[in-house]
Amino acid sequence: MDYLLIQMLNGVQLGLLMFLLAAGLTLTFGIMDLVNLAHGSLYMMGAYLAWTLIGWTDSFVLGAILALPATFLLGVAVEAVVMRRLYARDHLDQVLATFGLILFFNELVRAVWGPAGKSIAVPAFLSYTVEILPGVLYPAYRFAIIVVGILVALLLAWLVAHTRLGMLIRAGASNRRMIAALGVNIELLFSLVFGLGAVFAGLAGLMAAPISSVKIGMGDDILILALVIIVIGGIGSIKGAFVAAMVVGQIDIVGRAFLPDFLKTFMAPAAASSAAPAISQVLVYVLMAGVLVWRPTGLFGQRT
Amino acid sequence: MSHRLPTVHEMAAAIILLARASRMIEWLSSPRTIVAAILVLLLAVLPLLTQAFDQRYLLSIGTRIVIWSIAAISLNMILGYGGLVSFGHAVFFGIGGYAVGILSASGLQSGWLQWPVAIAASVLWAALVGALSLRTRGVYFIMITLAFAQLVYYVSAGLEAYGADDGLNISRSRFPGLIDLRDKASFYWLCFVLLLGTLWFCSRFANSRFGFVIRGAKSNDQRMMALGFPVFRYRLAAFTLSGAFGGLAGILLANEGAYVSPAMMSWVKSGDLIVIVVLGGMGTLFGPLYGTIAFFVLEESLKPLLDLVHKGWGEYWQIVFGPMLVLIALYAKGGIDSLLGPRHEGRRHD
Lengths: 304, 350
Prior knowledge:
The complex is a heterodimer of chains A (304) and B (350). Chain A has 304 residues and is an all-alpha fold.
């Protein structure tokens, strides 16, 4: 039972990280109608920038806090140089151009930081375990990720539902031309939204860094999962992204944790332990296929 | 002098003949035809050239170009002519390849068995994925094709019995008494003949009623449906055909390196295939071939070029290649094919 609880918490933690990534993606999809495959690169850049800044400042918190505006600036720059020219293009051009950006960022990282992965140590003030239930220990750092993730999700919900920026975002998602016609500076809005998405992606990247490692292409695999999440949740829907991220997080982690034992009942142990991650990944895609067959625009997507 | 004046009928026949001949000459002398003809001729004699100049390495690149062209042509059928952005086409490299690999590892070496099974597997998978994904459109279609490709990728990476992540060394398909695939030149020519077959099929497809329905649905699928065409079924048929040729490319790729691995169908390869089709010219017959050649030439030449600028930079050629893709997406709409002059196909509506 304890093991199950810990794995479920790990699932929540992974789900929140993926939500941070998916939130930015779904906003740019919903508002700018932009397929941004390079969103995973911002996740990676967030982690690498944090690694460098933590090295300079010698403090995890300071480095992490400095890395956020850095990824914001990077996002705004990418938006101004490339993305802005893509909004009016068809999805194929967007896929092509952002695919080019992925290659660029992956190689840039290899040239600047070298081919070997980096690691960020868990900050000292969080490297202990919390007793969440009597006898159940959980690493404080992972717990902190859950807390930060929930806070950011709440912040985002508040931002979208109760602020002027959020009002413009929602208006932009439903009718871009109309809010431009009403005199809203749509270019500035798009820049801000893209920068915001970059910050969330960077935050997810740097928070994930101490758990996994900081390496080239780290954003690509999780990006595909984030894409699956926003497709399940419905493109443009923050709520959908949150629900889908939680479900996918549970499937991924719980599948990885429990499938091997289940498979071992009828498979060779070695084969079972290598098949389990594959099967839990497959389950995620089967879920997506099922949702799309049932509702072709996702759980919370607008019907067209 | 008993010259008879030609009758009106005879004069008309002569004029029509002349007009046909001049159109034929115009077609033969158009840059598009000449370039394509020279290219096909060059590809036909490539093994002789590489042997004469003792450049074996070039033959292996040539073989890969021919195989990738087959895959690119098959993607072009749905992406170029049909406007369906499938972001998972490399999965057919994997399915075709793994079908050969798994049969080979099980001791079934005959190509007469392996190849039909591999094609059948590709067709089945394409039909299944098409039936599900063609219900969606736009971004959803891009993502669902990508996701299905990832699914197969993860399954192959979990196949412990067949090498999992590391892949699987296989022995090449056997066609006893017919052809020895271990011989590089024979294998190249086999691939080349299959490329010609694929080109022929694609040209028949593009100019058939079936092809026109697919192309019509690209410009306006509502209109095609209003005209009474079951667009979904047509698209599913095209998607399945495209998968069959993609599987063929996978079979060849597995035989080229005598090796299959999940990396064959990573999503980056699917991206590369899209790049190739767009770079060469979407919805054109020879575009995918030009695109593949340009892609491989860029890859092989950017490295030494960058090394010339500064020793060691060649390794990072994708720093240059990535922004080139961005520029291609932004500014090079018609691809290489459009450099050869306008196409005579009437007005386009996209």
